Amino acid sequence: MKSLTDHQFSLLTLTARLTVSPSSSQFFEGDFVSLSCEEDDSSAGWTLRRNASKPQRLQCAGQMAKLTSSSCNISKIPTWDSGVYWCESREGPISNMVNLTVTGGSVILQSPVLPVMEGDDVTLLCKTKTTPSNLPAAFYKDGSLIRKQPTGHMTIQHVSRSDEGLYKCDISAHGESPSSWITVTGDTLTCLCFCSFQHSQCDDNLMTVFALF
């Protein structure tokens, strides 16, 4: 893997913020999801994009999705809508990126879709699609069991950088959730690596570093 000094990169100021409602990084197939781009300059206009081998414009129209003046409302999200999303203007990507997972399975982990600040409390919820969301659940970080909870909720108090990692949960007789990455930040400036639209794989491609203020 190359270092930043081995790449060409440009610095762009992010002037928009992509938010997800309900605020979660995982959804069941068929759930309602709303994606909104909040801009400093509301007159600039925006396009919602999703990663693929090439960046694709999200088709926010038709029976399953509706575009309003401020958001894209997907009434029944399909599994193929999993991916990394961002808002883009004519000048290029202008927002943070969010990674959404849509599963056809029976268990999801509701976790923060945006980075959390050091010192904050974070609550994770392990839930099934068809039964009450207060079933006993086991929570894992980076593949290792960290806690079993009798009601499916787990709160991490006063999070620190050591709490950053890949989380998932399991409910006996129902199954295991997909994994989601939780990012912890204490900086007012955050840099995101964006290579070939796969932020976890940076090689010899042109990189763009986005400054979040």
UniProtKB/TrEMBL annotation:
<dbReference type="InterPro" id="IPR013783">
    <property type="entry name" value="Ig-like_fold"/>
</dbReference>
<dbReference type="Pfam" id="PF13895">
    <property type="entry name" value="Ig_2"/>
</dbReference>
<dbReference type="InterPro" id="IPR007110">
    <property type="entry name" value="Ig-like_dom"/>
</dbReference>
<dbReference type="InterPro" id="IPR003599">
    <property type="entry name" value="Ig_sub"/>
</dbReference>
<dbReference type="GO" id="GO:0006955">
    <property type="term" value="P:immune response"/>
</dbReference>
<feature type="domain" description="Ig-like">
    <location>
        <begin position="93"/>
        <end position="185"/>
    </location>
</feature>
<keyword id="KW-1015">Disulfide bond</keyword>
<dbReference type="InterPro" id="IPR036179">
    <property type="entry name" value="Ig-like_dom_sf"/>
</dbReference>
<dbReference type="GO" id="GO:0007166">
    <property type="term" value="P:cell surface receptor signaling pathway"/>
</dbReference>
<protein>
    <recommendedName>
        <fullName>Ig-like domain-containing protein</fullName>
    </recommendedName>
</protein>
<keyword id="KW-0732">Signal</keyword>
<dbReference type="GO" id="GO:0004888">
    <property type="term" value="F:transmembrane signaling receptor activity"/>
</dbReference>
<dbReference type="GO" id="GO:0009897">
    <property type="term" value="C:external side of plasma membrane"/>
</dbReference>
<dbReference type="InterPro" id="IPR050488">
    <property type="entry name" value="Ig_Fc_receptor"/>
</dbReference>
